[in-house]
Amino acid sequence: MTALQQATEVVDPVPGAQAPHLPGQPDLVQLLTPEGERVEHPEYSIDVSDDELRAVYRDLALVRRWDVEATALQRQGELGIWASLLGQEAAQVGAGRAMEAGDMAFPTYREHGVAWTRGVDPLHVISLFRGVDMGGWDPIAAGLNLYTVVIGAQCLHATGYAMALQRDGAEHAALAFLGDGATSQGEVNEAMIWAAAFSAPVVFFCQNNQYAISVPIERQSRVPLYQRAAGFGFPGVRVDGNDVLAVLAVTRAALAAAREGQGPTFIEAFTYRMGAHTTSDDPTRYRLGGELEQWKLRDPIARLKAYLSRSGIADAAFFDGVDAEGDELAARIRKGTVEMPAPAGTEIFDSVYAEQTPELARQRAEFVAYHEGFEEAGE
Amino acid sequence: MTQKLALGKALNLGLRRAMEDDPKVLLMGEDIGRLGGVFRITDGLQKDFGEDRVVDTPLAEAGILGTAVGLAMRGYRPVCEIQFDGFVFPAYNQLVTQVAKIHNRSRGKLPMPIVVRIPFGGGIGAVEHHSESPEAYFAHTAGLKVVAVSNPVDAYWGIQQAIASPDPVIFLEPKRRYWEKAEVDLDAAPGPLFASRVVRGGDDVTLLAYGPMVKTALQAAEAAAEEGRSLEVVDLRTLSPLDLDPVFESVRRTGRCVVVHEAPLTLGLGAEIAARVAETCFHSLEAPVLRVGGYDTPYPPSKLEEEYLPDLDRVLDAVDRSLAF
Q1: B63–A360 C-beta distance less than 8 A
Q2: Cα dihedral A356/A359/A360/A363 (nearest 10)
Q3: What is the DSSP track for A274-305?
């Protein structure tokens, strides 16, 4: 074994499971085991009512149903592409539910679970992947920035937003989402340097789903990602990303610290992308099927369902009700997708600038005249 | 009231006035606070407006532009200083993929009133990356507006107009003209920002320039006048959007057009201008539109920059070729 191999040898962080390439981490925050047992953690606790637990389950289940429907719609040619969140529902719903009104989320292109918790209509997200627009919701009103496709660019936006919160004296925080691959981006590192320098109220929420499309986490980092925070001078926490209660507890604490002026936190939500990177991807080319089977045993929804059932917080009628609601949601998404009107061609000209330029106005008029020419010719 | 001001001082006073007029205006950049900027353009502003409004940033240009986006989302009007032209490229991703596109992406819900001040161009004997003219990269990017000032009056008023603009503006400052002086009327703006201006009337050839080359063009016109040739000089001022109506009007009279810029010739602003003049003034042209620019090389070591940069003689050479066509 070479020195490099030794240095990067890793151990599965989730107790009781074998995943040979995962970095070792004894400090993983967990409040709900993969088997659905409630456990305590010395630093993080959570006080959730039964009603809230059921609501969390409902969020997880409905977001997954939406995701399944969107994947099907892509396969049927109704969407150009879809980025599935399968397996990451707990990380996203937990983080999203930790936010308060006035907080602002800065998503990547996969944060459908966060969008759901911010009350953004799934059809607004779908319209982006159908190619109708670039995200039709009002970012400020929703507390959710538009999806950002360039990897990591939104981390700087979140940091700048947090600097504005400081100047406004607003006791809110920004929550920047990123993936494991994004931690290699210079801009992400700059964002953490800035956040530290200005003690900005921003939380970096990294979903380490272990793959940047096909490239595994070892190519991005020789140390567990949460440990990088120490180098920037603020706390880093690794949480079981498939444990919605732990994610909720850790993110709530980090956001509260940010709002109180204690500066940034880096959260590594350790999870797994159970599906493909997007519908254009084929994960069988770069990972073994056995890995997925292992992670199915840690499914974020199944473990909460096991806990709710065993503890009597929810019964079969509740789960049946959520399933039925999911089917209704899927039907609404399907109908809304196929009936989504195509945008007018002139829209491409209308929002390039706040103050339209004469040249673009000229090109728009030329565009209109060109297309009207076909109509007059009856073509 | 008028005051005789150097171009750099006019910028300083323009920034000061913009900050006084709008508490949402804040300055961000490297060394702009305590030092006042390497060219002292922000001299004294941190002392008077505080560290929250004149922000000495970490040394990271993408960070400057990326955080400016987040600040703009909450209604701030960040004015970012890039220390030298060649150092804008680490911020290029944020400028092109985010600053330029967010208004469009959000269908107008997220305006980006960000100004990026860049000292640009050569002629100061500097080392590599300190003398470049990157305007074409930005003028080619939908969503950005690009202006280049040439004189203290436009510096004083232009910076205020750029800050007031609801769109992102790349504000190019001719660094070798920072010390050029002129009388500046501090009470009345001379006109809108996104407009070109005829700065010397003439009948034989239309000469187009912007930024540091306006002075060179005016010197060429002066020299040509001694030989009995009448050159009309247009200061383009705005590079995106281009304002070419005054140019078309001029070329229809002169029939000849020469474009001057420091940036490399190929696919520079001169190429676009030549195409538009040809499209619009084809029947008035007596000669092809000629371009005088830097060569298609990296900016040279400073001992060679005088040979690289367009000067009075190269401009007059092009004028001669146009007239001889």
Answers
A1: no
A2: 150
A3: -S-SSTT--GGGTS-HHHHHHHHTT-HHHHHH
Fold of A10-338: Rossmann fold (3.40.50)
Instruction: Kindly report, residue by residue over B229-255, the tens digit of the pLDDT.
Output: 999 999 999 999 999 999 999 999 999
State the Cα–Cα distance between residues B79 and B6, nearest whole angstrom. Answer: 21
Asked if the domains B2-185 and B197-324 are classified in one and the same CATH topology, the answer is yes
Kindly provide the b/e burial profile for residues B243-263, where b requires at least 16 CB atoms within 10 angstroms of the residue's own CB.
bbebbbebbeebbbbbbbbbb
pLDDT at A377: 78
Q: What is the pLDDT of residue A223?
A: 94
Q: Tell me which chain B residues have a C-beta less than 8 angstroms from the C-beta of A133.
A: 107
Q: Please check whether the domain covering B2-185 is classified as CATH 3.30.1360.120.
A: no
Name residue, tokens 């959007």. Answer: B241
Measure B113 CA to nearest chain A CA, in Å. Answer: 9
ipTM of the complex as predicted: 0.97
Positive or negative, the CA dihedral B226, B231, B233, B239 is: negative
- What would the pLDDT profile of B58-91 be if each residue is shown by its tens digit? 999 999 999 999 999 999 999 999 999 999 999 9
Q: Tell me the pLDDT tens digit for each residue of A249-276.
A: 999 999 999 999 999 999 999 999 999 9
Q: What is the dihedral of CA B32, B37, B41, B47, to 10 degrees?
A: 50
Residues of B annotated as catalytic are 130
For position A17, what pLDDT does the model report?
Answer: 43
In CATH terms, is domain B197-324 a member of 3.40.50.920?
yes
Q: Choose among A140, A160, A193: nearest Cβ to B69.
A: A160
Rounded Cα–Cα distance for residues A207 and A217 (Å): 12
Alpha-carbon gap, residue B187 to B157, rounded angstroms: 10
Give me the residue spans of the domains in chain A. Answer: 10-338, 347-376
Q: Do A259 and A168 touch, CB atoms closer than 8 A? A: no
